[in-house]
Amino acid sequence: MATISLIDLMKSYGDIPAVKGVNLDVADGELIVLVGPSGCGKSTLLRMVAGLETVTSGSIEIGGRNVVKAEPAERDIAMVFQNYALYPHMTVRGNLEYGLKNRGTPREEINRRVREAADILEIGALLDRKPRQLSGGQRQRVAMGRAIVREPAAFLFDEPLSNLDAKLRVQMRVEIRKLQRRLKTTSLYVTHDQLEAMTLADRLVVMNSGLVEQIGTPTEVYDRPATLFVAGFIGSPPMNLIPVSSLSGNEVSAGLPSGTDIVGIRPDAFVLEQPAEPSLALEASVELLEPIGGESHLHVRLNSSGQSIVLSVPGRPEIAEVSDIVVHARLADLHPFSAQTGRRADNP
Ligand SMILES: Nc1ncnc2c1ncn2[C@@H]1O[C@H](COP(=O)(O)OP(=O)(O)OP(=O)(O)O)[C@@H](O)[C@H]1O
Ligand SMILES: [Mg+2]
């Protein structure tokens, strides 16, 4: 097990910057999830840690040792990719043993580790099969098994579940979390799926175009997004971002921190009845009611500005479409942002 530190880490491909200076300290045994839109530099960052990509500047420390110049094999790290990369002509057992044999691990030790990994992942009955005789989820387990048998200082995962169907993804996500809790191996996990990110992470790193927007526990990031980008990225449906200018008729401007020109309101922070606490009231017309099981998404258009916003409300409210309503949000639930800096306006 080990800590991982990234210090001013940068990577450019020619003159195109992919990672623009990232600082991150991963604690021993911690599971960090890197999340962000396509092309923001997640894989590049992970590949630099693995040693599969050179570093343009900055450093990477694993267990306190600078590994920037170390070969991948010298870094004591195991990586699990999206496409599994199993050897098709080898059995499951062969795939699990391959890396250990290459390192000259003694036979008895190989047997012990393969048996343990097969137990943990419940693939003991599959050891004599070839990858093509396995389901997607089973292949994914074998890929994980190959990482586990190495007993590395750290795991790196690059979208390991993105080839699986929705149900299997959820199952495997839970298993990865349990596995990581059990083995307590320091892990960096990349995904662009925010639900996966929220449920797996000890801490989230939200990235946007090569930079870190925010680092924090899933709850911290959700409850207090540091930037407009994070506010719009984490949460589904996304937070509504409403210009202060369209809050006409409300006295809130006085109560907002100076520099606020956008307020963020989560869909579930809206209510249809005026709350007892100090609140905001917005006149709107209903555009669409989408029932989604236990709750409904109510799409409304603000009378003041014509902006469309989304509310998530419990049950299936009896609201005729295209009717006029007033929606409310408690002032305590408003997230103040500055459009100019793109950051929260209430940071100390
Ligand atoms: N080998 C390369 N040569 C040139 N540019 C590259 C190379 N690899 C990645 N890039 C660029 O670097 C940026 C970051 O790519 P990266 O693969 O790290 O993104 P990502 O966050 O993993 O995206 P995704 O979610 O789509 O996997 C992108 O703009 C990409 O086009
Ligand atoms: Mg990627």
Architecture overview:
It is a peripheral membrane protein. InterPro entries: AAA+_ATPase, ABC_transporter-like_ATP-bd, ABC_transporter-like_CS, ABC_transpr_MalK-like, ABC_transpr_MalK/UgpC-like, Mo/tungstate-bd_C_term_dom, NA-bd_OB-fold, P-loop_NTPase. The chain is 25% helix and 32% strand. By secondary structure, it is α+β, with helices and mostly antiparallel strands. It folds into two domains: 4-228, Rossmann fold (3-Layer(aba) Sandwich), CATH 3.40.50.300; 237-337, OB fold (Dihydrolipoamide Acetyltransferase, E2P). The strands form four sheets. The chain has a six-stranded mixed sheet, sandwiched between helices. A five-stranded antiparallel sheet has the order 13-17-14-15-16, with no helix packed on it. Helix 5 (166-183) links the parallel strand 7 and strand 8 (186-191). The chain is elongated, with a radius of gyration of 24 Å. Bound molecules: adenosine-5'-triphosphate and magnesium ion. Magnesium ion is lined by residues 42-43. The site of magnesium ion (MG) has 2 residues, from helix 1.
